[in-house]
Amino acid sequence: MNILVYLIPISLLLGGAGLIGFVYTLRSNQYDDPEGDKNRILSGEWDDHPKP
Amino acid sequence: MTAALRPSPSACPACDAAPAALATAEAHVAAQPGQIMLSLPTIHCAACISKIESGLRAYPGVKSARVNLTLKRALITADPALSASDMVACVNALGYEAHELDAAVLTATATDKAGRDLLMRLAVAGFASMNVMLLSVAVWSGAADATRDMFHWISAAITLPTIAFAGQPFYRSAWGALRAGRLSMDVPITLAIALAIFTSLWETMLSGHHAYFDAALTLTFFLLAGRYLDHRTRAIARSAAEELTALEVPRAWRLENGAEVEVPVVALRVGDLIAVRPGGRMPVDGVITRGASELDRSLLTGETRPVFAGAGMQVSAGEMNLTGPLTLRATAVGSDTSLHRMADLVAVAESGRANYTSLADRAAKLYAPGVHILSALAFAGWLIGTGDVRTALNIAAAVLIITCPCALGLAVPAVTTAASGRLFKRGMLIKHATALERLAEVDTVVFDKTGTLTTGTPTLDAPDALDPIVLAVALALAEGSAHPLSIAIAQAGREAGVQPALITDIREVPGYGTQGMWQGARVRLGRASWSGATPVATAATYLQIGDDVPLALTFTDSLRTGAADSVAALMAAGKDVWLLSGDSTPAVEAMAKRLNIPHWMAEALPAQKAAHIQEMTAKGHPVLMVGDGLNDTGALSAAHVSISPASALDAARAASDIVLLGADLTPIAEACTIARQATRRIRENFRIATFYNLIAVPLAVAGLATPLIAALAMSSSSIIVSLNALRIRGRG
User: Fold this and answer.
1) Which of B620, B638, B669 is the last residue before a domain boundary?
2) What value does the mean pLDDT take over residues B129-152?
3) Contact with chain A for residue B64, Cβ under 8 A
């Protein structure tokens, strides 16, 4: 049962990392234009060099 | 959708779905100088985005441009010197349709704070409930003694802060309801959460067997999901309604020292001299000081016949100037205009609708006291029976959790989201939360004529029956004018393949008509009084050749697409269809005959329309009103539920519950079907929820409901109810 001492914090950390990731996407306006984002990945505009 | 829009004066700048006090408070933040917002209704793909963005960026003075494909808008940051019309021209040159949007009206939806806040709470509740559920699985599968206690303590450590943060919308709303002396759905929710946490903590301290941390969290999660769906449906409706308003950037031309200066309508003051060009709308109430023209008053009165306007005449905001340039002196601006005074009529009429309680509220009224009494009885019973407060409290908490209104909280928003989404795809915007339910109850449909069943553009009656020479003369005279009746003649002439007659000295006399010389005789096309004719009752213009008796050319309004289908479908569905119009009797009668509408009423004043509808409502017929004009606003608010086309004045759009985004009327009949279907689903869901309660509540009262049963029952009922709600998307 001692393994729980590691496993529970690890599971909480992993879940927490997911939560923080979600909060980050929410804060950085990544849900404002889902249609546009899904189409933008198809654009070849910045294939050769990154967007300045 | 924008093709159907007519520019109109802004009667209600915040014409939106829900009262958005917050939104207007934030409206000033993003309306910075140099920020331009465009509506791009035709963009649809990745190529469109990059073409428009790179095109705009290449334009001198543009700092940045970002296209939003979801909202079909572009946000441009540029030098303050650049105007929106430059940007529209730039996008048009790239081959896309573009319209300027009034950023001040729109910014409220750009920063949807409330939605984001709910989503954040939903995510936190989801994260916590998953973790606690995992820990609970260990307890249910037999963890004992110290291990179980440790799991309970960890669960408590996760649950307490989560519940404190994620449940806030419920606590606030419950507190508000209690302070007002009401019992809303949120009161039992809050009580259930509080009691579950309290007993679970107590049990954990005494190292008991049962803790309801997982149940409290999943409950919060499901209810927040319902709350978020509900919010999103309304936010989408509000955003689309705001876009309609934002498309009408209200501008006027003020005469300053003899020069015309473009100013926003809000900057106009009483006494200002304002120039109104042919084709423009009166921005304010005023008196004509110079010029002569004809006015189209159809949006205000429903009357299709243009009226003469000359110096000294009173005009009201919203009337359209047809032929000659006019100069007005403003007598009333902003909220003093007759357009705004119509709002009083709306306020009086609206009191009837405020009495409507939604299905969910009606259910909550029965449900909330019932749950509290049941739980209190269970507590009292077990306390008397066993004398043990701990057991009794445990049972009471179990009863509250089991009965908690997941179905009510999730089922209604899920159904309305699915139904509104489907109607939105058909071009209907549901602005009001209970509009669908009210639409389902309707058994009488009242249509306005001008601008609703008709497009407001006239067509010439029976051009084939006319003498080709007459038509040729009329065509030649009409071609030089932008008057709607002239345009109709020109179109009819061209379709009939008639060559215009050779007429010299063509001259348009603003406010009267057009005249010229044909084969040595004077020919006149215009108003009855001017060409010496006796006026007929319908919309008509008069052609006089030489000294002959003038000939009346009559017109009918062309029907809107789908008007006939929609009326036929509504009558086939057993609805009583009425036509109420402010137009003259022959015109209304002809229209009623054309569409087979059995009941009609002509020359109705705005107050009469509203009174007629109230009368029908009083007789027990819930009325659906479809109208667009200012003269309809009273009737729109008096009706049980109301629909207006996107081309309506925004005062009319504000007064109605549903807005038709396209020019087509066909979706109206379909909307009634979908509304009835949605209401049936809601009732079905209530029945499912009741059935589930009938099974689960006796278990809980008997003390047999373990946390495992609570978790299973709650999740399964929520999922069943949501799936049932989604059925509305799939089938007709």
Assistant:
1) B669
2) 87
3) no
